[in-house]
């Protein structure tokens, strides 16, 4: 059975169930499997005909052993992906030559985060109902993550969710995706403050021990191992359609917190022939700089047209760092402590795994040009995050005959202003959201005050 350890080496050996519910390890590190399960070429070939939930169950089974068996996983995956509105779940579109686009925006909130969050929610609900426990998830969002979480957890019996967003500072589409959800276990809070104020309040709620215990607080941020492993599935799904395991495939991934592209690293580790993982960033380019110069150095966040990637410290990077350090948890811990102090570190030598990666940056002007050029050349309207990937992918062509798959992480209608500025076209929302702008909203507006927020959460939910 696969067990999990912390990247910082001080949390012992843990089961999948522990890792699922805990998120972050107690020593401040991130959970990773102690060894990789692997799939041989014959096993991968045999997966070619599977539908998406069946593939998910096959790939995840070794990771969840002891918590979910294959058949149980299959049931959970069917439930999780039933809310996607494309028959292929993750359709692959041919652009030109060796270039492909993997559309990851057919889930309920039109961004790739639905893939992980939907599965995480059904896993949480199942484990908690076995234990007869309830949890209250609290989170802060600047857009995509909160919407994905609210949709995934709405109506789940064992879980209540309170989501804070900065009032007036997220797009109307993003806000309405959260506030038009009608479920009694959802509380939307519009905070009179900034996104950082929201995050500080969430931290303060966790630091209030009495409140934390009374409400049984939990979080579902992007470092949760279950979210990472759920994302491995679409890499394998796309590659199998392009001839893997008999042909290697390269991917370009629009990157912020390094969760999505790290799932590509896991796909390679378990046996998928991955030719390259290209880490594509906007002007917030800490990762692209790292892969170019081996120096990891925090900068200041610049707001861009791809806001879900406006991140300077990539929370999942620590998982790769452990591998770059040859699996040495003590060195990884020391590096992260140094980074917390000084905001930078440099690696003199990189482990073998570094060859898998390349990095590149596309600025906002290039992104706008890429949206227009892609529309002109292929008829596809792409969102700004996807355009970052497409712009960087052309500079990192693998060998001829090796497909390059760019990940389309959001539907263009989720970021209509940038798309209209680049093309003059306002992208239509998919049918499921045709009446989004007229549906009634449910949301409380609160001052930036811990007591006010805690009171609202207690009033809505009572104790857990
Ligand atoms: C979250 C997000 C990203 C960045 O993904 P990471 O896993 O944080 O690297 C890219 N595009 C969109 C649309 C997102 O919502």
Model description:
With 464 residues, the chain is of the alpha/beta class. It contains 18 helices and 15 strands. Helix 5 (113-131) crosses helix 10 (225-241). The radius of gyration is 21 Å and the shape is globular. Pyridoxal-5'-phosphate (PLP) is lined by residues 111, 113, 144, 222, 254-260, 308-309, 385, 409-410.
Q: What is the fold-level CATH name, i.e. the topology of one domain?
A: Rossmann fold
Q: What is the molecular shape? A: globular
**Count of individual helical segments:** 18
User: Helical amount among residues, as a percent range?
Assistant: 40-55%
Short description:
By secondary structure, the chain is α/β, with parallel strands linked by helices. The chain contains 18 helices and 15 strands.
Which key terms come to mind for this protein?
464 residues; alpha/beta; Rossmann fold; 6-stranded mixed sheet; 5-stranded parallel sheet; 42% helix; globular; binds pyridoxal-5'-phosphate
Please describe the topology of this protein.
Blueprint: E1 4-6, H1 16-22, E2 31-33, H2 41-45, H3 52-64, H4 70-81, E3 92-96, E4 99-103, H5 113-131, E5 135-140, H6 144-153, E6 159-166, H7 172-179, E7 186-192, H8 195-207, H9 209-215, E8 217-218, H10 225-241, E9 249-254, H11 259-269, E10 274-281, H12 286-293, E11 295-297, H13 317-324, H14 329-342, E12 344-346, E13 357-361, H15 364-378, H16 384-393, E14 404-408, H17 416-423, E15 444-447, H18 450-461
Parallel strand pairs: 4-14, 5-6, 5-8, 6-7, 7-15, 9-10, 9-14, 10-13
Antiparallel strand pairs: 1-2, 3-4, 11-12
């Amino acid at each position: 059975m696969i067990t999990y350890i912390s990247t910082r080496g001080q949390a012992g050996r843990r089961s999948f169930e522990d890792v699922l519910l805990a998120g972050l390890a107690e020593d401040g590190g991130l959970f990773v499997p102690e060894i990789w399960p692997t799939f041989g070429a014959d096993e991968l070939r045999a997966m070619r005909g599977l539908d998406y939930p069946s593939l998910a169950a096959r790939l995840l089974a070794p990771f969840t052993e002891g918590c979910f068996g294959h058949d149980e996983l299959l049931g959970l995956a069917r439930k999780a992906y039933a809310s996607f509105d494309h028959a292929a779940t993750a359709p692959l579109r041919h652009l030109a030559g060796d270039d492909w686009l993997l559309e990851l925006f057919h889930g309920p909130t039109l961004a790739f985060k639905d893939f992980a969050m939907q599965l995480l929610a059904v896993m949480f609900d199942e484990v908690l109902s076995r234990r007869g426990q309830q949890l209250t998830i609290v989170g802060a969002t600047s857009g995509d993550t909160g919407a994905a979480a609210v949709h995934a957890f709405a109506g789940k019996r064992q879980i209540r969710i309170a989501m804070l967003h900065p009032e007036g500072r997220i797009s109307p589409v993003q806000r309405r995706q959260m506030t038009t959800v009608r479920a009694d276990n959802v509380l939307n809070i519009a905070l009179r403050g900034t996104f950082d104020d929201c995050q500080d309040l969430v931290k303060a709620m966790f630091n209030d021990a009495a409140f934390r215990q009374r409400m049984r607080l939990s979080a579902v941020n992007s470092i949760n191992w279950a979210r990472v492993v759920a994302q491995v599935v679409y890499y394998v799904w796309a590659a199998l359609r392009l001839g893997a395991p008999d042909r290697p495939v390269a991917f370009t991934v629009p990157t912020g917190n390094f969760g999505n592209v790290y799932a590509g690293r896991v796909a390679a580790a378990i046996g998928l022939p991955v030719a390259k993982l290209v880490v594509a960033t906007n002007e917030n380019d800490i990762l692209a700089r790292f892969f170019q110069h081996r120096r990891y150095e925090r900068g200041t966040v610049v707001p861009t047209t791809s806001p879900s990637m406006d991140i300077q410290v990539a929370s999942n990077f620590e998982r790769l760092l452990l591998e770059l350090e040859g699996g040495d948890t003590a060195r990884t811990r020391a590096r992260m402590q140094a980074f917390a102090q000084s905001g930078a570190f440099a690696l003199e030598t990189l482990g073998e795994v570094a060859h898998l990666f390349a990095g590149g940056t596309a600025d906002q002007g290039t992104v706008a040009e890429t949206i227009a050029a892609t529309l002109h050349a292929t008829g596809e309207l792409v969102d700004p995050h996807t355009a970052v990937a497409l712009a960087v992918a052309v500079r990192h062509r693998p060998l001829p005959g090796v497909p390059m798959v760019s990940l389309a992480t959001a539907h263009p209608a989720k970021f209509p202003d940038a798309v209209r500025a680049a093309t003059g076209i306002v992208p239509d929302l998919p049918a499921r959201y045709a009446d989004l702008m007229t549906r009634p909203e449910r949301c409380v507006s609160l001052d930036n005050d811990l007591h006010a927020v805690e009171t609202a959460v207690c009033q809505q939910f009572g104790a857990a």
